[in-house]
């Protein structure tokens, strides 16, 4: 990554420094907070009152964990419970290093393979287990996410966003997946917590539309 | 009550820049502290600026490319380490961008 500061990097860093101040104040005030937290873990702070920063930092944590960094998320700004018994049940931090996606021990029969194309969101979902597993979605690039079993961390499938606009444009063979696909909306449970924020076909640029028209014209000719 | 030490690296952005916060407290009193802003360059952390209570008073060290102190400045709350710790984070919140760019400029010479 280039070291040029973009507006979003500056904004995220500013807000995180402010969050560090709040976190230190919590550390000083509460001797029990983080008493079992290993010093060598990279901490990523998650504010309870700033959803956009929480989301950005959560994605930061996933990228950090996917690089093999020992990463921990720490909530900041939570009201501390007054009773120790309740406190012992509070989840204030959790490790992400434990997520190690693996391929399934046994491949399911072909009939279990589910392919769904969500036209409204231009997203392709692949599920090896007929959408029977409870999944957790983990973004691995700008356009793809792996879907893992939330208990066993076995790979359950994939999600590709901007499927026609980007993925098929990059690798036309992917279009054959549509022959197997069911055309419907991808459900929230199938997304496993992922949020799709790609452009839809209605947002196709003039340049892209011109490219499509040109390509069709070439076929006709 | 025995002193408690905290030492955490807190990630700040997608570059992997982080701030290291290390302090020892005895009850509500901070008896030693160090705050260091480090930028990540080609996967290697480089310390840019450090605030600590070494030498018996709170001060800020501006660091060179090889980690050497090229300039230091006494902090306003030189003997109140709890206030100095807060001041350090406030100073970084306001000035990290300048400290970062000046550090990179020094390194590129």
Number of strands of chain A: 9
C-alpha Rg of chain B (nearest Å): 14 Å
| Lateral strand order in the biggest sheet of chain A | 6-7-8-5-4-9
Which segments of chain B are poorly predicted (pLDDT under 50) over 5 or more consecutive residues? none
* Computed structural class of chain A: alpha+beta
Please report the total strand number of chain B as a whole number.
Answer: 6
Helix fraction of chain A? Answer: 25-40%
* Oligomeric nature of the chains: heterodimer
How much helix, percentage-wise, in residues of chain B?
25-40%
N- to C-terminal separation of chain B? Answer: 50 Å
Instruction: Give the H and E element order of chain A.
Output: HEHEHEEEEEEHHEHH
Number of helices of chain A: 7
The strand order across the widest sheet of chain B is 1-2-3-4-5-6
Major beta-sheet overview of chain B: 6 strands, antiparallel
Q: Kindly report how far apart the N and C termini of chain A lie.
A: 44 Å
Amount of beta strand of chain A = 15-25%
Q: Which of globular, elongated, flat, extended, rod-shaped describes the shape of chain B?
A: globular
Summarize the structure.
The complex is a heterodimer of chains A (221) and B (109). Chain A contains seven helices and nine strands. Chain A has helices spanning 7-29, 51-66, 84-87, 163-170, 177-180, 188-191, 206-220, and strands at residues 42-47, 71-76, 93-95, 114-118, 123-127, 135-139, 144-149, 155-161, 182-183.
How is this structure best described in words?
The complex is a heterodimer of chains A (221) and B (109). By secondary structure, chain A is an alpha+beta fold. Helix content of chain A is 33%, strand content 20%. Chain A contains seven helices and nine strands. Chain A has helices at 7-29, 51-66, 84-87, 163-170, 177-180, 188-191, 206-220, and strands spanning 42-47, 71-76, 93-95, 114-118, 123-127, 135-139, 144-149, 155-161, 182-183. In chain A, strands 6-7-8-5-4-9 form a six-stranded mixed sheet. Chain A is globular and about 75 Å long. The model of chain A has no long low-confidence stretch (mean pLDDT 78). Chain B has 109 residues and is an alpha+beta fold. Chain B has a domain at 1-76. In chain B, 26% of the residues lie in helices and 46% in strands. Chain B has one helix spanning 81-108; strands at residues 4-11, 18-26, 29-41, 44-52, 59-63, 69-74. In chain B, strands 1-2-3-4-5-6 form a six-stranded antiparallel sheet, with helices on one face. Classes of the chains: A alpha+beta (221), B alpha+beta (109). Chains A and B meet through helix 1, strand 1 and helix 2 of A and strand 1, strand 2, strand 3 and helix 1 of B. Strand 1 (42-47) of chain A pairs parallel with strand 1 (4-11) of chain B.
């Amino acid at each position: 990554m280039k070291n040029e500061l973009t507006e979003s990097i500056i904004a995220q860093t500013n807000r995180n420094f402010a969050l560090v101040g709040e976190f230190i104040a919590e550390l000083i005030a509460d001797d029990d907070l983080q008493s079992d937290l290993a010093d060598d873990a990279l901490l990523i702070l998650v504010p309870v009152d700033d959803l956009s920063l929480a989301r950005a930092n959560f994605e930061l944590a996933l990228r950090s964990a996917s690089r093999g960094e020992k990463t921990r998320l720490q909530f900041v700004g939570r009201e501390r419970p007054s009773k120790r018994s309740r406190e012992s049940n509070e989840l204030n931090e959790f490790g992400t290093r434990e997520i190690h996606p693996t391929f399934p021990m046994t491949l399911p029969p072909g009939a279990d393979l589910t392919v769904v194309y969500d036209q409204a969101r231009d997203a392709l979902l692949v599920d090896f287990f007929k959408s029977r597993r409870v999944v957790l979605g983990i973004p691995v690039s700008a356009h793809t996410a792996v879907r893992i079993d939330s208990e066993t961390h076995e790979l359950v499938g994939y999600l590709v966003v901007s499927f026609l606009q980007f993925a098929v444009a990059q690798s036309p063979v992917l279009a054959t997946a549509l022959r197997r696909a069911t055309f419907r909306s991808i459900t929230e449970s199938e997304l496993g917590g992922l949020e799709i924020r790609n452009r839809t076909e209605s947002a196709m640029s003039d340049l892209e539309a011109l490219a499509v028209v040109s390509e069709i014209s070439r076929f006709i000719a | 009550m025995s002193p408690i030490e905290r030492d955490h690296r807190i990630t700040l952005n997608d570059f992997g820049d982080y701030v290291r916060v290390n302090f020892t407290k005895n009850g509500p009193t901070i008896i030693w502290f160090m705050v260091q802003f480090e930028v990540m360059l080609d996967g290697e952390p480089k310390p840019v600026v450090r605030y600590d209570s070494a030498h018996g008073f709170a001060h800020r060290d501006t660091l060179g490319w090889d980690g050497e102190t090229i300039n230091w400045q006494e902090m306003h709350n030189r003997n109140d380490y709890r206030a100095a710790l807060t001041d350090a984070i406030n100073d970084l919140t306001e000035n990290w961008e300048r400290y970062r760019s000046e550090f990179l400029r020094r390194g590129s010479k």
